[in-house]
Amino acid sequence: MIRLEPHGPVVRAEFSTARTRLIGITVSCYLHKGVVVDTAFPDVRHWYRDWLTASRAVGVMVTHHHEDHAGNVNSVAKLGLPAWIAPATMARIRDVEPIGFYRHFTWRQMRSLTREVMPFDPAPLVPIATPGHAHDHHVLWDPLEEILFAGDLFLGVKVRVAHADEDPRALVASLRACARLRPRMLFCAHRGNVPEPVAALSAKADWLEHTIGEVDRLADAGWTDAAIQRAVLGREDVTGYFSFGDYSRVNLVKAIRATRAAKTD
């Protein structure tokens, strides 16, 4: 299903299925100044395609390669709409890797992009590289109206789970860079309109920076990943078990330790 929600100059299109609602997750795309941010997930392709057509969008911007954001790029290409897609994102959606059971259950497997996509300049909106959640992650910034379309940059202040390939240190830098923009409005792909965006971005950066410091301290003391996880983040929750450890608290510990090693090499 799709639910439309106006926010001044922005229209939020919130997509869900019975399965995503069962586990309490929805995905939002946004229409602003003729630009649609993201393409939702494969299981809602018909609703997304119909909305995209009705929206009279002039182009699409894709924040990163995960299937709940790039899952319907093929539909964009079939409709002949141009798209802004970072080269690193394009490489991943041209050769899509198989996903685990929990992601297939939630979103369905996206298909590799086989069509050509016309390039698109979303000006006056500005794509900004914000690595951390994913290496290819970008946000879309409207400097005139001070509106930030954040993709998965925010998600919440105390997000205790991560994928194995995330870079928490880079995420802190990206959060602080976006807070310095001083957005008046911030739209998250899973949280919708985030109140007090500068405070929210700064609070997340502060919490994550503190968490990184605690993990580093215990790692220096010789603690194991599992022991650090329990001490700093608490016991694994249902997300970690449902994903068979792919999106988990222990992965956040591992990502912090892995990026620390990379920074000191």
Number of domains: 2
Write the element-wise H/E pattern from the N-terminal end onward. Answer: EEHEEHEHHEHHEEEHEEHHHH
Oligomer: single chain
Strand content: 15-25%
Looking at CATH, the homologous superfamily of the largest domain is: Ribonuclease Z/Hydroxyacylglutathione hydrolase-like
**What is the architecture of the largest domain at the second tier of CATH?**
4-Layer Sandwich
pLDDT < 50 runs, ≥5 residues? none
Strand segment count: 11
CATH topology of the largest domain: Metallo-beta-lactamase, Chain A
| Major sheet size, sense and barrel closure | 6 strands, mixed
Shape verdict = globular
Helix content: 40-55%
Query: Strands across the major sheet, in which order?
Result: 1-2-3-4-5-6
Q: Determine the mean pLDDT.
A: 95
Top CATH class of the largest domain: Alpha Beta
Class derived from helix and strand content: alpha/beta
Distance between the termini: 48 Å
Q: Rounded to an integer, what's the Rg over CA atoms?
A: 18 Å
Query: How many individual helices?
Result: 11
